[in-house]
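Section 4.2 – Deliverable D4.2 (structural model, holo form)

The reporting period included a commitment to supply a predicted holo structure for the target in complex with GEK. Inputs used:
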Amino acid sequence: MKKHSPRDTLFRVDSINEDFVFNEHVVEVFDDMLDRSVPFYGEVIRSSARLLDCFLHSGDTVYDLGCATGTTLLEFSRILERKGLHFIGIDNSAAMLDKARLKAKIYSKEDSLDFLKEDITTIHHPGTGAFIVNYTMQFIRPLKREEFVQRIYSNLRPGGILLLSEKVISHDRRINREYIDIYHAFKRSRGYSELEIAKKREALENILIPFSIDENRALLSNCGFQSVETYFQWFNFASFIAVKPA
Ligand SMILES: Nc1ncnc2c1ncn2[C@@H]1O[C@H](C[S@+](CC[C@H]([NH3+])C(=O)[O-])CC(=O)[O-])[C@@H](O)[C@H]1O
Ligand SMILES: O=C(O)C(=O)Cc1ccccc1
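Output (structure tokens):
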């Protein structure tokens, strides 16, 4: 998939000096950016697929909220091909969805994947088997998150699951600082310069607002999810499974 994605150089020169938005410049380099900015991106997707395999039944529908260019659903449709699931990606960026549809076509998956332009905070898709929300709730205003998760909960069928991946913070200042440094070292190892890392950090300030693992857990529990666990963590990145009671 990387073949189709030019390298992310958005923060190399003075091309972006404003808050981060998902415009066409971002979309063009987006797959390369996620691949180099999210630790174990592919492993999180494959682990998520395992959980879908455990919890879902044939005929279930999976919605990927904030699906971006559709990478996750393409991988699911490959791994879970024989399970008889329906995969639908939702995003509010037309540019992202254009790219997602193009990729689905390139990989001959147009028949098993659908993409909808909707606001993920106002969805109405009752009876859903699973919602995937990867690296997207972190962009929703904190005060709006409970309503967002509540809506996901009420749209799940009994026994359905939410798989949530987020950048997280620690309220222990020392640990938090070290995790951020480790993450920046990871980005340097993936070819980003100090300046690019610093500029990106500034652009995301007040836009990407991470909760701690405990805050995310509490949020999920408060909305009715009784079983909540993490299934992946790498320093300040974590993935959660939350199951709606059957
Ligand atoms: N209110 C909203 N309604 C619809 N879409 C939204 C909204 N807010 C943001 N988005 C969309 O959420 C996506 C977030 S990217 C998720 C990565 C993906 N999950 C991945 O695993 O590849 C993360 C990132 O860009 O850092 C973008 O495509 C936005 O257009
Ligand atoms: O690039 C960064 O520094 C980020 O934190 C961005 C990010 C993190 C996780 C998912 C998507 C984007």
